[in-house]
Predict the structure of Glycosyl hydrolase.
Amino acid sequence: MPLRGGDLGCVWFGGTQEGVPDIAVHFSRLAPGASRWSPAERLSDDPARSEQNPLLFPAPDGTLWLLWTAQIAGNQDTALVRRRVSTDDGRSWGPVETLFPEQPGFGTFIRNPIVVTGRGDWLLPIWRCTKPPVGAWTGDLDTSSVMLSSDGGATWAEHAVPDSTGLVHMSLVDLGGDRLVAFFRSRWADWVYASRSADGGRSWSAPEPTALPNNNSSIQATRLADGGIAIVFNDSSAADATGRRLSLYDDIGGDEVAPLTERSAFWGAPRAPMSIAISDDEGRTWPHRRNLEVGDGYCMTNNSKDRLNREFSYPSVCETADGVLHVSYTYWRQAIKYVRTSAAWVRGAAR
């Protein structure tokens, strides 16, 4: 994320293993011209919850927001959203606050950045993690919404995306005026889906599949200076899977998961390659695609301590004024990898 003054900021969650209480949020920065990122700084410390999915938001008033989720073990239906605010571009941080508290029966999750529209509205994509009638949370009933604030984050109103069951990690792209397009991860591990709004994010079309595959792993999209849209994703789906997990957290124990059905979330599709694609028609087609990293993407376990997981996942992408595309992603759940490239390379004009 570009910060004021020219630094890049990167946030991630780390610890023993996702869902374990020692998972916490970390922050690092890269100064202009520097060849090394600053030492990681831990910014959360809840001994009872797994703290995940951090994002940075440089607010229009000059403050820098850090948002993240906090859940009990592998139960995403217990997730709440927390916040810290910095007035000096991340060099110091205010106290931990709860932005969206835990709700009976469902948790609130975030992953992709806040978008500020031409109206001045703040749009924060969320998804609701609902506990099923039988068994632990697995993602089968998750639905997406946009939280909209017209008063600088003081109050928020929810605008649900219709027919979005199983579609999460909504990534917003402002197309200008009141038009937006959003892209979704699919719990069914089939395709990246897209939805559109013509009224500044207050109402949304029912999501439809794009030509990009999805493996029930995260995506992120951004608008380019030349008008295109770049998206980072895993170019794989359930069709590439050689096995299937019962749930995301089946190797840390906890509440029993209900047996799989035809409409259960698909876990275990390979999280590789890590790819980037560009659309020149507002996300309707994706003719330009490149792989940033290839591998087998093995993710039948989240165990990184013993080097059992080999996924590339949870990518982020932004473009700076010099035309550089900055991409970061999880490398084997052991480190964050940072890559610099360009839209020209993705389009094949430069190598």
About this structure: The chain has a mean pLDDT of 96. The radius of gyration is 19 Å.
